Amino acid sequence: MLAGIDYFIVIAYIVGMLLLGLYFKKFVNSSEDYFLGGKSLPFWAIGMSIVVSDIGALDFVGVSGQAYRYGVSVGNFDWVGSVPAMLLAAFIFIPYFWKGGMYTIPEYLGRRYNKSVRTIASATWILFFALDLGVLFWASAVLLNVLMGWPIWISILSTAGVVGLYTYFGGITAVIMTDVVQMIIMFIGGFALVFLGLHAVGGWDNMVEKIATMGPEYQSHFDIIQPSDTSSPFPWTGILFGLTFVMANAYMIGNQSIVQRCLTAKNEWHAKASMIFGSALKMFIPILVLFPGLMAVVVHPDLADGDQALPMMIKSILPPGLVGLMFAAFFAGLMSSVDSLLNSTATLFTKDIYEPFIKKGASDKHYLKVGQITTLALLVFGVATSPISSDFPGIYVAIQTFMSYFQGPLFAILLLGIFWKRTTQWGGLSALVIGIAFAVFLNVFKEQFFHIEDPFLYISWWSFLVAFIINITVSLLTKKHSEERLKGLVFSSKIVMKTKTV
Amino acid sequence: MLNFDWASDIPQETAKMIFFGLYLVIGAFVMLLPNEYIYEGVPKEERFWYNNLKIWSAVVLGILATVYYLF
Question: Same domain, yes or no, for A427 and A319?
């Protein structure tokens, strides 16, 4: 499928990323450098990194496929499902975490609630991230195998080698700065496909007109708000309650790999600005991933599987050179997801598990070494577990789904923890445990409870609500925390009015 | 109840207005934040209109509202 020029672009991209990542090795002298980039990074780099980490190659294919089947309503995930949450994160949560000098979200939960909450939250993230690694290695190997003809194991080892090397040596600075280049490549490749695709379908108006005349199932393809009784997974009630109120906030405020980036900012303004800048860039993502799916409805109307929409559009529309660029964009998505997982998991393990439970009070150099060795161990674990994806093709969706069930309860305890002084450690712990158990219960019996195809948005909302109520109830029944213990951990209007007091 | 059956009578246009309302509420929240908090981290002599995060937020929310108006 690839021409000579495409091979050249892909290999130049991979080598370029390796060299760029390794360049940042010289800035790593302490654990703060490794995990927080020495708190020296500018908003634009962090904002770009947030965006590119959030979108992987699997999402490119998956979202295009969903746009092919359900239309523009898929765009809700990057529009209302990101922007409001990012603004709230920028002005409420991120300044707290940044000022508090935190490394991880579970660290905040540990200070606000107790060690058990911190450990459960951290262990859950570590487990999900580690399992995700193997899936992503397999996905990148399949891409390299199909397009470059490389054997699967050579592909896995080369991806792990390149990403592993720069993440191991350069830490989060290397991760963020390579993400910047990866985002630029992703945008160039994505927009090239959109412009050429629009040309192929005779322009936007022509495409809308053609799709509208293709039958009743396409009548709501351009309605971003779907009725609450739609059979698609995106009813407006699910988008509002499950996505906008819960999942988006949980993701932007509670996801270690996102928040950790903002904590690398050089000052509080850059931390806030990074989220807002990221939200502006985020609004372009649906254009890159959704529009090709819509265009494929016109160009390839009889696809049996919507997930073929993007590969078919690349194959039929892009000329040599741009195919290589688009493939580099795919690969950029995968690499940015892998490096984020590696660095965030290493941070979670070192700060939330190793430091409190295995070796307290060691030297900074020791924790830096632990972070690097954890990165290496994760790399080996990811490579070793990657064949699981070939035996269980649905594992990626399964991991993502279960991760979404963890997010409702997590957001409930974060929200109450920061806004309600009366919340206690036992309220938080019981809310987290019961909330996750309730989400799993709803998922197991989803056919009995829900009408729509995949009710993950509704499950997020109801598990959030249950965790929220449990937290309030148990907190009211248990001893409240002292003012001294809550200092700097609970939102107060005084902190906004007199920012120097924190 | 778990399926939000009560919302099935709400027209899509009304639902869309709920989303616009949400953007307005968030916009109002940001606008009400003190400038001192918005600029925290920027030295006083370097506080210009282009690093006012209220303006950034207003632009982002404006684009978002336009997208929902168009679709």
Answer: no
